[in-house]
Amino acid sequence: MPKVLISDKLSPAAVQIFKDRGIEVDVKTGLDRDELIKIIGDYDGLAIRSATKVSPPVIEAAKNLKVIGRAGIGVDNVDLPAATAKGIIVMNTPFGNSITTAEHAIAMMFALARQIPEANASTHAGKWEKSKFMGVELTAKTLGIIGCGNIGSIVAERGIGLKMKVIAFDPFLTPERAASIGVEKVELDELLKRADFITLHTPLTDKTRNILNADAFAKCKKGVMIINCARGGLVVEADLKVALESGQVGGAALDVFEEEPAKTNPLFGMENVVCTPHLGASTNEAQENVALQVAEQMSDYLLSGAITNAVNVPSISAEEAPKLTPFVELATLLGSFAGQLTESGIHEVVLEYEGPVASMNTRVLTNAALSGLLKPQLEDVNMVSAPVIAKERNIQVSEVKREQRGAYETYVRLTVKTDKMERSVAGTVFADGRPRLIQIKGVNMEAALSDHMLYVTNHDKPGFIGALGTLLGTAGINIANFNLGRESEGGNAICLVAVDGAVSPAVLNQIKALPQVVQAKELSF
């Protein structure tokens, strides 16, 4: 039975989802790092919000951890490279709090436009400073949205409803999508130049970090209003303070900060700054939605292998998982076969998919093949970490897809290229759901893979089969299956033998000494 730790406060309904799905669950909130490190090794899954920091020491201690589920969008509190290297899937819930966050951005824009926080404080203090709080209308103003994905597009819709002119900067926004939601797609400099209000709805990446800095503010209209309900670090706070003091920026509304929790900040206390404590997703509806969603996603993965909203591995839907499973096994076996026979540095890997398998989620299959290929040398590698490791080692990976053109309905071939050789191995999945090898180095051969196997390349000469069988029999090694293939009569041949137990180095050396043998190696699967 899988076991999940919930280390941040989640809805009781989320806890019940785990239990109803047959997953053991512990709720232990408020743990410090050392406490988390002490217990995390007992769990297959970790469900968090923003409070738990999943640092490299925590990940290192997570010996059994398979999945981290973040109830919310941002995964800044998870060390993604460390989790990926460890083979841990990291999921988020990008849609559960989208409306709530978008509404908060609109509320912050109204607060800025009408100076509501200052007017509220003044009125509560018994003052009647009506002339002091002269606001601006939103109607006909230009709203600039940086990041027009799920949340940004909702903000755009609300802005259009307020009769604002909406422009957006987002490299991934297509002209067709922009037209469909009623926004004008522009470059960043044009947005800065034209916008009366600028709102940020982009993740924090190397490309977006400090996107609003002194240079950006200098390009803006004088008096521009800035709203950030996305991520701290998108705005350089020191530069924003200078721009506010000079009047270049007329006001700012911030729900997120460079350092959180923000107990002190250079922007606190400024009259033209509205601050909230990261409330973007803080509604009852949103909290319930993301908690239920993360519980369902984690349960699906732990019980069926379905992967939804993962940030470091391709997703696999619940419908795809049963169809993909035998091909994942095939791809892993092909990779393992090639990996155990490869003794020099790999510089290129090619995966060919033919027939119906070509229309499946081949990224998953390629990751599985890479995992099998790299595991013999690196051991601690899986489908999550394998693509990253391959990239770090400058291994070029490519896919080729085509319609069925051979005798087999589906066909998968893995080709590995090194400085010394090129080796290919191909396989298929038959109607019984079991993977088979069907070709090795261009030699046709149909073989099932078992726990212990002998791979022998030899010259196709009389007496080889008898000599090999006699040698194994003398050593007390039983042959479970014997598979042969050859390029041509008297030419190069391949022998793949399934045996019932391990073959000792001494017996392997005797096999290598047979006059017809070119290469002999023990394989395990």
Explain what this protein looks like in three dimensions.
By secondary structure, this protein is of the alpha/beta class. It folds into 3 domains: 3-95 and 285-304, NAD(P)-binding Rossmann-like Domain (Rossmann fold, 3-Layer(aba) Sandwich), CATH 3.40.50; 98-275, NAD(P)-binding Rossmann-like Domain (Rossmann fold, 3-Layer(aba) Sandwich); 320-524, 2-Layer Sandwich (60s Ribosomal Protein L30, Chain: A), CATH 3.30.1330.90. 35% of the residues lie in helices and 24% in strands. It has 17 helices and 22 strands. The protein has helices spanning 12-20, 33-39, 56-61, 80-85, 98-114, 116-124, 150-161, 175-181, 188-194, 214-219, 237-246, 284-304, 320-341, 362-378, 386-392, 464-474, 505-512, and strands spanning 3-6, 24-27, 45-48, 67-70, 89-91, 142-146, 165-169, 184-185, 197-200, 224-228, 249-254, 273-275, 346-354, 396-402, 411-418, 422-429, 435-440, 443-447, 452-459, 479-486, 492-499, 517-524. It has a 7-stranded parallel sheet with strand order 8-7-6-9-10-11-12, sandwiched between helices. Strands 14-13-15-16-17-18 form a 6-stranded mixed sheet, with helices on one face. β1 (3-6), α1 (12-20) and β2 (24-27) form a beta-alpha-beta unit. α1 (12-20) runs parallel beside α12, α5 (98-114) packs across α7 and α13 packs parallel to α14 (362-378). It is elongated. The two termini are 25 Å apart.
